[in-house]
# Entry
Amino acid sequence: MKRIIYIGLWMVILAVGLGACNDQTNMRKKITGKAGELVVVVPDPTWEGATGKSFREIMAQPQLGLPQDEPIFDLINVPPSAFKEIFRTSRNIVRIKISTTVDTSEVKFRKDIWAWPQAVVDINASSTEEFNQLLKKNSDRIVAFMLKAERDRLQMNYRNYHDKAAKNIIKDKFNIQLNVPPGFKVTKQEKDFVWVRYETPDISQGIMIHSFPYQSDSTFTQQFLLNKRDSILKANVAGPAEGSYMTTERQLPPVFNVFQFKKNYASEMRGLWRVEGDFMGGPYINLTVLDAANNRIVMLDGYVYAPRFDKRNLLRQVEAMMYSLELPDQQKNDKINSQVNMGN
# Structure
């Protein structure tokens, strides 16, 4: 059940929040809290009962594509009486009210109520039954709204603070825009291939960028992309031992979705990587986009190696970099995609 709820959420993330009410109150205050935290304002009896359990099963379900279970959000329960200034600046807030005084049962998506950039969801229901129906109907939107808020914050930081040298190399090589945070460096360049990564003694984060001609719709199949990914990695990403190289862990099937990325045909794949001939491994995310105007495929492959640490937030950082991708001829792509859609 938990897998079903989460699969495909990224396809709706870009559409969620567009109609959210933006209450520009007290914009001078900055958000507080750690990445991935979600404050849930609800009375203790509700939180500890069946209603709270249902909510936790959705908002703390395991993040897919990680080697160990990590929740998509770290939940912090706060009773309404304790929801004071210290909590009101939290980055992500869900307020739950179940009362016969509620006139209209509804879910409200709002931004920047007490701080900036903040995501707030209000779930108001006149009864437990109404709440359960609202949660069932809106669970994907709530999760997507919060995940998008997390990604938007990272991307805003990357737009304002990025490594200009790495960004320029990527632009010169592929004629694409990609915001690369400070600390990430280009460590390898080959024909149609660039590898940028950030290294410390404890963790490694990186993105491999590759492009190749678009030849067939079969490009956007899981098997083709797995094989293509492995061929690129074997040729370009050597492991620490002689003859070792990065590859895909095939024992755990990846999570694969086809969707529209900024109006372009695209796919996303999440799973685990390993090093053939060594013992390294971790999570990866692959974003493959059709650049129709230039008859090519742009493939971004991000990964994390952090054997002693949680990996959810580290992978989200890489993911936000990848999703900052901008193609050079988007207006032409929009026209081509519009013609294709009309033909369908």
About this structure: Residues 162-343 form a domain with the Protein Transport Mog1p; Chain A fold (CATH 3.40.1000.10). The radius of gyration is 21 Å. The CA atoms of residues 39 and 76 lie 5 Å apart. The longest strand covers residues 264-276.
